[in-house]
């Protein structure tokens, strides 16, 4: 139960690592060390399955429960329909590893669970194949997730979670309330790093959803967001991993906070009725991304067919029910059981009140912002 | 003679090799990374000294370490004094109780503090149930919780050197002072206390130096607000993959610790304080 979301952390960390590597800020040794530290270093050598038969498809994700779920929801159904064996490799398809594999000429992966940032970088570097949108259906993707070298596969959001029982009469309705300690007392939790956090601090100042990243694109905008955290820091406990955020709510250490929707998915079942709620108002949606390495063993068409198959709304809905990774296909929302709809980051109601995570902004501003963020919390 | 020396070296060689391969060499690499990533030169060190966050982190670290040391020395002194001079019959039991926490990992002890100090932890629940407080107190995720838990971890490091020192002090001195008409307190202050100062110094130094590099307890009980240097290094490397700055800060911490030892060496005999503990 607890190992299934750390991969998201890994995804993000690996993305950053790959990014640094690309920018030349991290040497190859540094990258490998970082990967090893994250536990995503290759467990299998490259080239082992270089001559795999075309009747087999290797899907790579970040391991844990998510690997089992992909096997169950996508793998077995795909085999039943096409006869093609689906092998799940949970060793973590970081951008660095995909790059190393393609450059070494011994590609053994067909479809990889990556992120938009990595997808763009890998595509530009010529490491991945363009998505064939004559096979993969753009209409079955959340708008804005149909990149040239990758397409969305599922979504998780940074959301406003609360414990209504602890909060009593003062229930925060939006980010402005969360950053108002006077009227809404209690401890809050935010992520240790700025990802998904500065957005909510900007919304708290009354900035409209569509203007958030515009405002954050100026030095003043970033400073204003950081200032919000400085003001309430005596009431802040930070979370590093998803499991930490989960624990803070379980142990009633915090009464509100900005956490991953996938953790909220677990918490809603673990906490008593009436002591956990989530608001997608002002959430930040972060899409996972399928990428296909260049010269993948099963061939381009097979990989595209699998991606198209995985778009099926009923599979996407099932995927969400089992693990909380929200459907990327808008049509899947109606198939999610009614009782779970309000927890679904990509239900039409919830999408309307959220923004899409902006990778370009992070590529440009993250490092400087992180430094200011840490300083605001401790100094 | 020559062969004897060679033999000693051969005996020490395996341990020495392990140290060089797994300790010295990685350490040299850390220094190297701090000077080469992302670019050759002192860029990381310049960035470090300019960074307010790093400065604050160092201030927090030295403050927490100093607080921990003062409290440990005070409590430890009383504890060591009682064990050596007062409750003699129960001495083996008391020494065992000082040593016992050593056998439980720091991680587990820190988690135990979380269970105790949490918002709905044992302490808060008990206080509320007997009507002492209405709302839960903030006992952790702040400096109070960190220092409390660190004192718990560090106390044996203060008690043991002081106890060793006190056991070597002849009671006859104090008794002579008493016989010459000194009050009990004067005898303690003028005769006993000065003799225990080497033990106090060695205990304090040990606790302070260990506290400077402490990671687990502040990370678990600090809630991200009590960001000590070792945690900030982890932050840089794991969260931001900023190896250059992370290693530069770790070199700075090492240098700072060395400076503490050098300054201490002017007042304390380091060799006897840290190495000889009889």
TrEMBL record, chain A:
This is Putative spermidine/putrescine transport system substrate-binding protein. Keywords: Signal. The keyword Chloroplast does not apply. The keyword rRNA-binding does not apply. SUPFAM superfamilies: Periplasmic binding protein-like II. Pfam families: SBP_bac_8. InterPro entries: SBP (IPR006059), TAT_signal (IPR006311). It comes from Albimonas donghaensis.
TrEMBL record, chain B:
The keyword Flavoprotein does not apply. It is found in: Cell membrane. Keywords: Cell membrane, Membrane, Transmembrane, Transmembrane helix, Transport. It is a multi-pass membrane protein. Gene3D superfamilies: MetI-like. The chain crosses the membrane at residues 9-33, 53-81, 93-116, 144-164, 199-221, 241-268. This is Putative spermidine/putrescine transport system permease protein/spermidine/putrescine transport system permease protein. The lineage of its organism: Bacteria, Pseudomonadati, Pseudomonadota, Alphaproteobacteria, Rhodobacterales.
